[in-house]
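As practice, study what follows.
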Amino acid sequence: MGQMIHLTSADGAQIAAYEVEPQGTPKGAVLVLQEIFGLNGHIRNVADGYAKEGYFVIAPAMFHRVAAGTELGYTPEDMPKGFALKAAAEALLPQLLGDVQAAIDHAARAGKAAGAPKTLKVGIVGYCWGGLMSWRAAQKLQGLSASAPYYGGGMTKELSGALHCPVIAHLSDRDDYVPMDGVAELQKAYPQATVYIYPAKHGFNCDERASYDEPSAKLARERTLAFFAQHLT
């Protein structure tokens, strides 16, 4: 449905990204940020899904700087590979945030080129590590009108920065990477953020993972779409 393009980041680096235009005039723009498994088929399917809802969508390849073209699956053998790539990417965090900023800026401009009457409002949604990056984007980057992190491991340890856009967070009650005591601290630190807790495990949105929970995934998506409709359209 979409196509691969390249973004130019602040340091001049060319970063691969998956871009999808909706049918008709886009009503807003959405960035989709990957898990630790790369810009794989599942993430492209998620991007396609938001495009079907009328949004201009872009999913940057967040491992492009450390291992271009990475597409992992969800087997036990893939997990350590994903964690190693995440560690390598985290060592380049300022550059990665620059890559996300480039995607935000591109989405706002390109959506207008796709037929919108004005520069689009941009939202961001991320899963797993992408959830953490979506949380960081709400704290550190410019040009976002909404952020929807899903079970971002490490979110509860980054509670010092102000939020620059509305946030809806989808977390779960059986997540080893986002413990409930940390969730309580997050809610205390950011009472303006909407936090939903689902009876599920980490990764509950991904229908290719053993932890997939269809009722939770469906409800979280409905809430995210309503949130984006409120803040992006």
Remarks:
- Residues 207 and 214 are 8 Å apart (CA to CA).
- The beta strands are 3-8, 14-20, 29-33, 56-60, 122-127, 144-150, 168-174, 194-201.
- The chain has one domain: 3-232.
- The first strand starts at residue 3 and ends at 8.
